[in-house]
Automatic annotation (TrEMBL):
<protein>
    <recommendedName>
        <fullName>Cell division protein FtsX</fullName>
    </recommendedName>
</protein>
<dbReference type="Pfam" id="PF18075">
    <property type="entry name" value="FtsX_ECD"/>
</dbReference>
<dbReference type="InterPro" id="IPR003838">
    <property type="entry name" value="ABC3_permease_C"/>
</dbReference>
<keyword id="KW-0812">Transmembrane</keyword>
<keyword id="KW-0131">Cell cycle</keyword>
<dbReference type="Pfam" id="PF02687">
    <property type="entry name" value="FtsX"/>
</dbReference>
<feature type="transmembrane region" description="Helical">
    <location>
        <begin position="179"/>
        <end position="205"/>
    </location>
</feature>
<feature type="transmembrane region" description="Helical">
    <location>
        <begin position="226"/>
        <end position="254"/>
    </location>
</feature>
<feature type="domain" description="FtsX extracellular">
    <location>
        <begin position="56"/>
        <end position="160"/>
    </location>
</feature>
<dbReference type="InterPro" id="IPR040690">
    <property type="entry name" value="FtsX_ECD"/>
</dbReference>
<keyword id="KW-1133">Transmembrane helix</keyword>
<comment type="similarity">
    <text>Belongs to the ABC-4 integral membrane protein family. FtsX subfamily.</text>
</comment>
<comment type="subunit">
    <text>Forms a membrane-associated complex with FtsE.</text>
</comment>
<dbReference type="InterPro" id="IPR047929">
    <property type="entry name" value="FtsX_actino"/>
</dbReference>
<dbReference type="InterPro" id="IPR004513">
    <property type="entry name" value="FtsX"/>
</dbReference>
<feature type="domain" description="ABC3 transporter permease C-terminal">
    <location>
        <begin position="183"/>
        <end position="302"/>
    </location>
</feature>
<keyword id="KW-1003">Cell membrane</keyword>
Length: 303
């Protein structure tokens, strides 16, 4: 009997407040979509950052005879090279350095020809025009600035180039997008909570006579409040389902089928990552709906 009463009250509430319920579904859909997108963006940053930073190398280019750098007074001497090698392999820098490889002018020339074989200017470049260098791999690729600061301006060093500087702006943009998505999601979630509370209050007001009669015949507070609470939960679950579907479609067709084909250099999040996020969308949405409903009912369902 109580179960039938709860179901009938839910049906009555949804029919009476159809427009408000649809509004809750849509606001929840938009807000949870941004929450999921923010989580997936953060996962994408982590997925891309690992392999990219693992490949980061610092190049310490040595002076040549024609170098114009203030730290250069001609080509780097053997003493300069030995000093750089010793600094890289001795404390305190050794704890940051995973490997060191010296690249001669002939090796630099061979690599240049391989990289720019289609460029007509490559034929006019000679080995003595290219600098020798130390190629440094790092234990922690995000600590590239330590090596750069240690050797910039050192005797025999023309310049220190680190690939990390190229990656930092890229990841900064991704992190900014993640933060923006989560901030917008937070604003929309607040709007959803307020809208759920308003819907519950309106439903409680419209059915105040029925709930008064039920209270007089001995209905418990749980029986009276449960239909209103479940109305909000159902609306939020519909919004979460729409958000999950939108994320699955976006990742399946926008990322896996299009972006991964256009830019195949990276690993991307997939539908499996979306399925990991989906339960959190439902749980988070239901908790917010329950909280908004309980607060509203405690104040407005007094008969």
């Amino acid at each position: 009997m109580r179960f039938q009463f709860v179901l009938s009250e839910i049906g009555i509430g949804l029919r009476r407040n159809l427009a408000m319920t649809i509004s809750v579904v849509l606001v929840t859909f938009v807000s949870l979509t941004f929450v999921g997108a923010g989580a997936l963006l953060q996962q994408q940053v982590a997925t891309m950052k690992g392999p990219l930073y693992d490949s980061v190398r610092i190049s310490i280019f040595l002076c040549t005879q024609d170098s114009l750098s203030p730290s250069c007074s001609g080509a780097a001497t053997e003493a300069n090279k030995e000093a750089i090698q010793a600094a890289l392999t001795s404390p305190p820098l050794s704890e940051y350095v995973a490997e060191v490889r010296f690249e001669s002018q002939d090796e630099a020339y061979a690599q240049f020809q391989e990289d720019f074989s289609d460029d007509e200017l490559s034929a006019s470049v000679t080995p003595d025009q290219l600098p020798e260098s130390f190629r440094v791999g790092l234990v922690d690729p995000e600590r590239f600035q330590v090596i750069r600061e240690s050797f910039s301006g050192s005797p025999g060093v023309e310049q220190v180039v680190d690939q990390g500087e190229v990656l930092e702006p890229f990841f900064s943009v991704l992190n900014t997008l993640t933060v923006a998505s989560l901030v917008l999601a937070a604003v929309m979630l607040v709007a959803a909570v307020l809208l759920i509370g308003t819907t519950i209050r309106l439903a409680a007001f419209n059915r105040r006579r029925e709930t008064g009669i039920m209270r007089l015949v001995g209905a418990s507070s749980l029986v009276l409040q449960l239909p209103f609470l479940l109305e909000g939960v159902i609306a939020v679950c519909l919004g979460a389902a729409l958000a999950s579907a939108a994320l699955l479609v976006a990742v399946r067709y926008g990322v896996s089928d299009w972006l991964a084909v256009q830019v195949p250099s990276f690993d991307y999040v997939g539908t499996a990552d979306v399925w990991v996020v989906v339960p959190f969308l439902f749980v988070g949405g239901v908790l917010l709906a329950a909280l908004a409903s309980v607060v509203s009912l405690s104040r407005y369902l007094k008969v």
